[in-house]
Design a protein that fits this description.
This protein is of the alpha/beta class and about 500 residues long. The chain has a single domain, classed as Alpha-Beta Barrel (TIM Barrel), CATH 3.20.20.140. Helix content is about 25%, strand content about 20%. It contains twelve helices and 16 strands. Strands 1, 2, 3, 4, 5, 14, 15 and 16 form an eight-stranded mixed sheet that branches. The longest helix has 30 residues. The N terminus is likely disordered.
Length: about 500
């Protein structure tokens, strides 16, 4: 596939004046709490309908390790809330951000990191990753991301394909990624559940699983599902087939939810000789979406298709959290903002298929500029995840070419606060605020520079990467004993 930088001159010419006005309105905003959907804590605590899960299966076993108190002093701090503090300190204690400000005092025994000349940000969050389900080395035996056997595989869970030994996790950590959201692929209309992981070395995926983070449901628009199933002479083979299949499945999910609700109401009333509805794992996932417990993460490129999905969501009473890839999100930026839907996009990928043709590099900036807009930079790549900071830097550069200045303290939200919001974990991470997880990156300079390198990466206050250490990276079990190059031992 060809993935190149692209500026659509015809589109820019058509919207030049309005683009400048829209981008001029781009000012830092705080994350919007969605009153029509439970927050992550509420969703996690809400019991599932039916006999499915009295206790959630495959629970997280992640436990933050104990770690010494750390004071990073005298750095340029981007809090992720839209604030920049120069010559400031960040105090980490008991796995949490304990304080952010100037002149913070260190208690005896505190490890002090000289932050002068350095920048400090929240940990980077990639909302769209396939690490672990398409791990390295990229061989057929490792191709576990697409259960391409039916248009609706809402019953599968991406986490059951995650291989914790994927060396890509360590490479992403070096790029400052502390949290990542792993999704199934986009072959199916309903690809299955996605999972949010802490980027920590582990033997099992459960030991990486972000505690209490809601699952996502991966859905896919457009070319991928109609190509996969059209070749098999089955529905869908067209975009109208996509929509018909979605609606049929949602209709079944509404009925499934109704049947279980009626059964539970009758059981609660003391009715006898009841027979529970048959458990259906596909419908179980979709019913959880209808209840607001699972967040919809929707692969979709074209503006017209995103608008169709939003109408369908209204018809069946569910909420789209994020459109992924969304190369034409700029065309409906106001609509997305009005409905509190985020757009997770690339900086400049385009043209590798027809539905990605009408992309512009200003896409993320226009989404961001809409009042209440939620722009996210994502990777969808085991290489791109290593430099999401640079991808966000491209967005700053694209805005500058349009005559708009985007401050670093605003742009950092594209890879920290906004993805945390879209994943339902913004109360726990994504910003450097007191009480949140001490997921912190120390950079050797501005993170948006092409020369920027991480120096230290903390997850829950524990240092997970230190460039100055003798062995700076954790090493995947798979890589142990592997030669770095022919004839060279590690």
């Amino acid at each position: 596939m060809t993935r190149r930088h692209h500026a659509d001159r015809r589109t820019l010419a058509a919207c030049g004046a309005s683009l400048a006005l829209l981008l001029a309105a781009c000012t830092p905003t705080t994350a919007v709490k969605r009153p029509d959907r439970p927050d992550a804590a509420t969703a996690a605590a809400k019991p599932a309908t039916g006999e499915a899960t009295k206790t959630a299966p495959f629970p997280s076993t992640y436990r933050a390790p104990s770690s010494p108190e750390v004071l990073i002093s005298g750095a340029t701090v981007l809090t992720g809330t839209g604030e920049r503090l120069d010559g400031a300190d960040v105090l980490l204690r008991d796995g949490k951000v304990a304080a952010v400000g100037r002149g913070l005092a260190a208690a005896p025994g505190t490890r002090v990191i000289d932050g002068r000349g350095k920048w400090v940000t929240p940990g980077v969050i990639d909302i769209h990753s396939h690490l672990g389900v398409y791990p390295s080395p990229g061989v057929d035996a490792h191709s576990d991301g697409n259960e391409a056997t039916a248009p609706n595989t809402a019953n599968v869970w991406a986490e059951h394909s995650v291989w914790p030994q994927d060396p890509g996790f360590e490479a992403a950590l070096e790029g400052g990624v502390t949290t990542l959201h792993v999704l199934p692929g986009s072959a199916n209309l309903f690809g299955g559940r996605s999972v949010t992981l802490k980027n920590v070395p582990a033997v099992t995926y459960q030991a990486m699983k972000f505690p209490d983070a809601p699952h996502g449901l991966k859905m896919a628009c457009g070319e991928n599902p109609k190509r996969v199933y059209g070749n098999r002479r089955t529905l869908p083979s067209t975009r109208m087939g996509n929509v018909a299949s979605w609606r049929q499945s949602w209709s079944e999910a509404v009925e499934y939810q109704r049947d279980w609700s009626q059964y539970e109401a009758r059981r609660a009333s003391g009715a006898k000789d009841l027979r529970a509805p048959k458990r259906d794992l596909r419908m179980e996932t979709m019913a959880a979406v209808l209840r607001g417990e699972i967040l919809v993460q929707n692969h979709c490129y074209r503006a017209d298709e995103m608008a169709i999905v939003l109408d369908m969501a209204k018809e069946f009473g569910y909420k789209v959290s994020t459109f992924h890839h969304a190369t034409e999100a700029y065309k409906i930026a106001d609509l997305l903002a009005e409905q509190s839907v985020c757009a997770a996009v690339w900086a400049d990928w385009w043209g590798f298929k027809m539905e990605s043709y009408d992309a512009i590099p200003e896409n993320m900036v226009i989404v961001d500029a809409a009042k209440g807009g939620c722009a996210i930079v994502h990777s969808d790549s085991d290489e791109g995840i290593q430099r999401l900071n640079q991808e966000a830097g491209k967005g700053i550069a694209s805005a500058a070419r349009a005559g708009i200045a985007i401050a670093p303290e605003h742009a950092i939200r594209w890879i920290t606060q906004n993805p945390a919001r879209a994943l339902g974990i913004a109360e726990k991470t994504g910003t450097l605020e007191v009480g949140k997880a001490a997921d912190v990156v120390v950079w050797n300079g501005s993170p948006f520079s092409s020369y920027a390198l991480t120096e230290q990466v903390f997850i829950d206050g524990a240092m997970r990467f230190d460039r100055g250490a003798r062995r700076p990276l954790p090493e995947s079990d798979f890589m142990l004993g592997q030669p770095a190059a022919p004839g060279v031992s590690q």
